[in-house]
């Protein structure tokens, strides 16, 4: 009786270990799929936010006859929800120090994750935009990139960030808002200097 019970326990233990191992293997197989789905959802949310910012900027432009001097200038009049300026993949939730490529929390305390390209030095050098404060229509008019998300994901699109740890081997997508309000994804492997929306 005791012996039989002992064997049952031993079997149960082995079975438990086997089941645990199987769960571990399955989790290992499924985790990248979950992570990918989660990243895709965040990217979709980011693109949706950029679309909202594009609409806000178009309303600003219609009222003022030119683009806003910086991205968050459309808040709150044309975009009351400040959370729209923060990409869900931004680890610092938009609260960055201001730099040449990022507005951060300087003008909008709740933070800005996106780069406003008319103010991006490299975009002036490439001739996309004139140097501020001339907020014209841009080199490609409605197709001119207007804002960009740094957290999706291609750092090759920013030479300043390339110099930092991120830029070694960029993969994935660059998410761009165009001046006309469209949002497009572009492969990160494409150098920014070769970008031409008309090609
Ligand atoms: Zn993003």
List key phrases describing it.
199 residues; alpha+beta; 4-stranded antiparallel sheet; 3 helices; 4 strands; binds zinc ion
Summed up, the domain count is 1
For the largest beta sheet, what order do the strands appear in spatially? 1-2-3-4
Count of alpha/pi helices = 3
Q: pLDDT below 50 for ≥5 consecutive residues: which ranges?
A: none
The radius of gyration is 24 Å
Cα(first) to Cα(last) distance is 81 Å
Number of strands: 4
Unique bound compounds: zinc ion
Strand content: 5-15%
What overall geometry do the principal axes of the alpha carbons give? Answer: elongated
SSE pattern: HEHEHEE
| Oligomer status | single chain
Main beta sheet strand tally, sense and closure:
4 strands, antiparallel
Arithmetic mean of pLDDT:
84
* Approximate helicity band: 25-40%
Structural class based on helices, strands and sheet pairing: alpha+beta
Secondary-structure map:
Elements: H1 2-64, E1 114-116, H2 121-125, E2 145-153, H3 159-162, E3 173-178, E4 183-187
Structure, described:
This protein is of the alpha+beta class and 199 residues long. The chain has one domain. The chain is built from three helices and four strands; from the N terminus they run αβαβαββ. Strands 1-2-3-4 form a four-stranded antiparallel beta sheet, covered by helices on one side. The longest helix has 63 residues, at 2-64. It is elongated. The structure holds zinc ion. Zinc ion (ZN) is lined by residues 46, 87, 89, 149, 151-152, 175. The site of zinc ion has 7 residues, from strand 2.
